[in-house]
Amino acid sequence: xxxxxxxxxxxxxxxxxxxxxxxxxxxxxxxxxxxxxxxxxxxxxxxxxxxxxxxxxxxxxxxxxxxxxxxxxxxxxxxxxxxxxxxxxxxxxxxxxxxxxxxxxxxxxxxxxxxxxxxxxxxxxxxxxxxxxxxxxxxxxxxxxxxxxx
Length: 150
Known about the structure:
Elements: H1 5-15, E1 27-31, E2 37-42, H2 45-48, H3 55-67, E3 76-81, H4 85-93, E4 98-103, E5 128-130, H5 135-148
């Protein structure tokens, strides 16, 4: 049992909301330093018609709004899928302390699979990464969604 299991369960619960409006089931939660959820989101690209409406970006926006500032340096983002380049960049720019993700993304992962944007020494901030938490459950949700949509 991992210290991140409850937060990943919350992210999976968010992911389950996305297919209702035709979005890929990816969910994210932002935790404060004590582990309390301060924001949550799921993919809303189809719902909003917005290519940037990924779960991670929406969760970061909501956390910043709830906290009254964009610097999330004492916060952790927990997401069901390894972030893409856009979301990895958003993590760096929001100064998130830690990223916890579930399934690896061999086609677009920008934290471990294809690139490592969040720990690139050329950038001014580096994010601690914990990968593979609940990977089987997170991957199964995506596989089921895509099996139903092919």
